[in-house]
Amino acid sequence: MRLSLAYEMQRPMVNDHAVIEETIEQCVLADRMGFDTVWFVEHHFLTSFSSSPCPEVIFGALSQLTKRIRLGFGVVILPYHHPVRVAERVAMVDHLSGGRVEFGTGRSAAYEQIGMGIDPRNSRAMWEESLEMIPKIWDEGLFSWEGKFWNVPPREVRPKPYQKPHPPIWVAALQPATYQLAAEKGIGVMALSVAAPSFLAPHIQAYKERVRQAKPVGRFINDQWLSSTMAFCDRDDKAAYELAAKSLRTFFGPDRPYLKDQTHLYEQLVESWGGVPEHLRANFARYLKTEGQEGAPTVDLSGGSGQIASALWNQIDAETLVDRGVLVAGDPERCLRSIAIHEAAGVDELQFLMATETIPHDRVMSSIELFGTHVIPELKKKGARRDRC
Prior knowledge:
By secondary structure, the protein is α/β, with parallel strands linked by helices. It has 13 helices and 13 strands. The chain has an 8-stranded parallel β-barrel with strand order 1-2-3-4-7-8-9-13, surrounded by 8 helices. Strand 8 (188-191), helix 7 and strand 9 (225-233) form a beta-alpha-beta unit. It is globular. The two termini are 17 Å apart.
């Protein structure tokens, strides 16, 4: 099981310089503590929520300040950029880092797409065309293209990636249709929905089976599944998972502009977190409908509004979320137990969003150090024992 960190570069008050400096300090520590990858998002127009519009720039610094940790584009929003420029920038970071790049791709959401002048109806087709172009740009000496969105006369594009044949390719995924598409194209899944492993397990199994028959868009199949969650490690067990739960609720808060059109968001979250907990069923009995996955009842909003699901979502307690693996939080032993749930579901890499608006820099540094001192060594021991068997 690989462990990685995700960065939105969040800060409750806008202070661009401070968040950049603190993020670099955290990533350098994560490299020293044994984390496998740092992933940086690309977001625009999301003041305080995300200060990461250009991962390739911060990777320029991190490529020189770190030694072994991989640098993950998590993700490049392909419709926003000319594919030649994407291929050039990713390849340049790959050289600067000595071949440590992971190439995640995506297409963002309507709020940002409209702000960038992209018609949301075209974003899927633009992503697919760009994704088809970029491995060819890396592979071919003289590249040319005639497509719906981009046209390139015969040109040689340099540099080529340091990794041969090219960095692993991924796609950000929030729904089963994208998991299936990733399997067909032979690229890794970045499941960013923050869901219970029990909810994702059948999707992981289906992806692993389908990806074996992939016609890869690149030169090789990346058959890896990454799941994302909030995480925080502290010697005070209860305080740790309460703080992680606060990060989770803030992340999906109703004030987020990119969530405003997702009318069934909280109903979907309750389902993906494992359904209604037993201790809340009595309070919401009249709103429960047919049982969902693994017998967990779901919320019935027919004829109603999202207020019921929102109220239920807010009442699912932190300890339940940790027990189900929705959060990885608590003391080192508790974190190891939650990680084991993901591993049993078939997850290859677990990505932690640790540096959030609700967790200050010094607490993030402490959490990274605890993971590196107590959690990561235990995972490596377990992996070594499994390899010997």
